[in-house]
Design brief:
It is built from 15 helices and ten strands. By secondary structure, it is of the alpha/beta class. The chain has three domains: 3-284, Bira Bifunctional Protein, Domain 2 (BirA Bifunctional Protein, domain 2), CATH 3.30.930.10; 291-402, no CATH class; 416-479, no CATH class. Helix 8 (310-328) packs across helix 10 (363-374). Bound molecules: adenosine-5'-triphosphate and magnesium ion (MG) (3 copies).
Length: 479
């Protein structure tokens, strides 16, 4: 199955299992000042997970486009992209672990056709401090599923974090984890907001024996680095607890206490790109049917190969795809909030394309490819293609006018052999249109040292400018 088929098959399975398919949310959440982007399928559903009845019922599913600007530094590895699609299903006080885990297994093994021998899972190890028990129930369900698939009990070890690294790669399949396998807003049990729901999380990984660049982190249950042999493909959160109000009245910090929720919810999220990569036995998500044609276009435009230019091509591919979806959802490049992130993606894509030798008009041909890949599943991307192209072209033209001058300015500073200051970054931003993160990256690439207080100086210069322009507006002066 390719990525498109997996997306369709997922929604079909969810329909068969009684789920209402709900509309995806915009990438830019409205009425939520706490976050710039929709970063998971769960995020728009939080009110319902907290107890509000959902008009579509108690079983919901969708495929939610997500943007995680916080993952931008990871982009370039084999598994993280700033934009991705999350397969999601939710039970609002309906089914729980005994249906969710086998349903996910069925999807992975029978529908997508993954090899059960290569599936590894982690479950919550409990939290004595807060009286939250180990998630034995999930572990038992997984144990049974592995056994039914003929994976012998000897290889199904239950391991804990302390000795996880030693037994990793030695047949352990189910890891009990404490810190990583709890989900709630704000982090672990202690960071949970009073009244919020949370609960144990069970993560699923796919094993790639062909990955040879192995590190300590390549071992199960450590998973999260480039080159690791275990790729997280999805997880189910069992929202079972509610953080209770603190009882201390003398002002000293109270121990967090928990009560069972009246509704036990399931929140499942799976990475479409990663499941598609597993389905084609590729540890590299950029090889899937939704990303590879973009890479191929870059190979054509640059005359270079992906094997030689993996890092830069991954960045350009991801950033352009993300910007196309942001444009489809009405975002335009600007100097603040979502627009700033979009600008950063585009300018970074243009900069990395230049490194590939593409000095002109890189965005337009890539928009065409992205729009072609997504027009069926997301008609808004096809329908708005012309507008999207215009928005991206305009940004490319604006940045190209000053890109080379900005780079020259940087080389100039490098020649002077002095640290680069906040004032320099301000000029690069204000005059040459370099988002500050891009110029720090560029400065490091040129071997420059950053002045210790560069950040403070940069912020001060920007604030100064803001006040100047406010004063000018008040006086009716426009320049
Ligand atoms: P990771 O640990 O690999 O960063 P995560 O635990 O942060 O992933 P979740 O919040 O659990 O991710 O999101 C659900 C699923 O979405 C993950 O299991 C993974 O398959 C996918 N996913 C998460 N982040 C990304 C990303 N940046 N790019 C592609 N897929 C992702
Ligand atoms: Mg992550
Ligand atoms: Mg994870
Ligand atoms: Mg996860």
């Amino acid at each position: 199955m390719d990525a498109e088929q997996i997306r369709t098959a997922y929604l079909q399975l969810m329909t068969e299992r009684g789920h209402s398919l709900i509309e995806r949310a915009s990438l830019v959440p409205r009425d939520d000042p706490t976050t710039l982007f929709t970063g998971s399928g769960m995020q728009p559903l939080l009110p319902y997970l907290l107890g509000e009845p959902h008009p579509a019922g108690t079983r919901l599913a969708d495929v939610q486009p997500c943007v995680r600007a916080q993952d931008i530094e990871e982009v370039g590895d084999n598994r993280h992209t700033t934009f991705f699609e999350m397969l999601g299903n939710w039970s609002l006080g309906d089914y729980f672990k005994s249906q969710q885990i086998p349903m996910f297994w069925h999807f992975l093994v029978d529908v997508v056709g993954l090899d059960p021998e290569r599936i590894y899972v982690s479950v919550f190890a409990g939290d004595d401090e807060h009286g939250i028990p180990r998630d034995e129930e999930s572990a038992e369900i997984w144990t049974r599923l592995f056994a039914q698939a003929g994976i012998s009990h000897e290889t199904v070890d239950l391991i804990t974090e302390e000795h996880g690294n030693e037994v990793g790669n030695q047949g352990a399949r189910i890891a009990f984890y404490q810190d990583k396998n709890w989900w709630s807003r704000g982090g672990g049990p202690d960071a949970m907001l009073v009244g919020d729901p949370g609960g144990p999380d069970s993560e699923v990984f796919y094993y790639f024996p062909q990955v040879t660049h192995d590190t300590a982190y390549g071992r199960f249950p450590h998973q999260n680095s480039d080159g690791g042999q275990y790729l997280e493909i999805g997880n189910s959160v069992f929202m079972q607890y509610r953080r209770m109000p603190n009882e201390q009245t003398d002002g000293s910090p109270a121990e967090a206490t928990f009560a069972e929720l009246p509704n036990r919810n399931v929140d499942y999220g799976g990475g479409l790109e990663r499941i598609a990569a597993a389905a084609m036995d590729s540890p590299d998500v950029f090889r899937i049917s939704l990303l590879w044609p973009i890479v191929e276009e870059l190979e054509r435009l640059s005359g270079k190969s992906y094997d030689e230019q993996t890092h830069a091509m991954r960045i350009v591919t991801d950033h352009v795809r993300g910007a196309v979806f942001l444009a489809a959802d009405g975002v335009t490049p600007s100097n603040k909030e979502a627009g700033y992130v979009m600008r950063r993606l585009l300018r970074r894509a243009i900069r990395f394309a230049a490194e590939l030798g593409i000095e002109n008009n890189v965005l337009t041909p890539l928009v065409d490819i992205v729009a072609g890949l997504y027009a069926d599943a997301y008609p808004e991307v096809g329908d708005r293609r012309e507008t999207i192209t215009k928005v991206l072209q305009k940004e490319e033209r604006a940045f190209r006018r000053t890109l080379n001058k900005g780079l020259r300015e940087l080389r100039h500073i490098a020649k002077e052999q002095r640290p680069i200051t906040g004032g320099d970054f301000f000029i690069l931003n204000d005059t040459f249109g370099f988002p500050v993160e891009l110029s720090t990256e560029e400065a490091q690439r040129q071997g420059l040292t950053l002045a210790e207080d560069w950040r403070a100086e940069f912020d001060a210069r920007r604030e100064e400018q803001r006040q100047r322009s406010q004063a000018a507006t008040k006086l009716g002066v426009h320049d």
